[in-house]
TrEMBL record:
It holds the Pfam family Peptidase_S51. Keywords: Hydrolase, Protease, Serine protease. Belongs to the peptidase S51 family. This is Type 1 glutamine amidotransferase-like domain-containing protein. It comes from the Bacteria.
Length: 217
């Protein structure tokens, strides 16, 4: 299994993603964490397409809404890409779209077979953790019903063993909600990684490496 999980895009560790992927090629860009914000959806896609192209990748948007109830087709589609890129947004909306499309079953199979690299930031990283409780302080679970037509799910895919708190001391979180969540997790003894926008988690086979600039519990 190869994972690159960050707070914001490549953080300060693009070299580690490049080492996982090898020669840049096709990338499946999954932007469904932004599905509750239709007016911003296209701009969100473009904001990730541009930096990926600058690094030599060929991003192609894969909209999980096109695969609702069709997990076999989704699996065939994703298996054709050496890497998928799952951008940030609302973690609960992304988790719901994973469930509706079957990505929550498809991706663990593909990753276990080492068929592709999973790169995700913010919501795209958090969705792989064991439990999403606490993230409601930053992401609104109420957006799930209107965007996805189902109730929010509170479990992640459990592909990493700790929760992730992104955007520590980040200008994207001026109210400091993420720092407060990390403080709550510490107080409750909940294992987690608290990531600044420079930090990343790299999983390569059996090895998990935390590329982090501050203490995490």
């Amino acid at each position: 299994m190869r994972l690159f999980l960050s707070s914001y895009r490549f953080g300060a560790h693009y070299d580690r993603l490049a080492a996982l992927v090898g020669v840049p090629g096709r990338v499946a860009l999954i932007p469904n964490a932004c599905d509750a914000w239709p007016d911003a959806w296209e701009a969100a896609v473009t904001s990730d397409v541009v930096p990926l192209r600058k690094l030599g990748y060929q991003p192609e948007t894969v909209d999980l809404r096109d695969f609702v109830g069709r997990p076999e087709e989704l699996e065939r589609t994703l298996a054709a890409f050496p890497m998928i890129w799952v951008r940030g947004g609302n973690t609960f909306v992304l988790r719901a779209q994973f469930a509706r499309s079957g990505a929550d079953l498809v991706l663990p199979r593909l990753l276990a077979a080492d068929a592709l690299v999973y790169a995700g930031y913010s919501a795209g990283a958090c969705v792989l953790t064991p439990d999403l409780h606490g993230l409601e302080s930053a992401d609104d679970p109420a957006e799930v019903v209107s965007a996805c037509g189902i109730e929010p799910l509170w479990d992640g895919l459990g592909l990493v063993g700790r929760r992730i708190v992104p955007h520590i001391d980040s200008p994207t979180d001026p109210a400091g909600q993420c720092a407060l969540l990390a403080e709550f997790y510490r107080a409750e003894g909940i294992p987690h990684w608290a990531l600044t926008d420079d930090d990343a988690i790299v999983v390569d086979g059996e090895r998990t490496e935390v590329l982090i600039s501050r203490a995490a519990s």
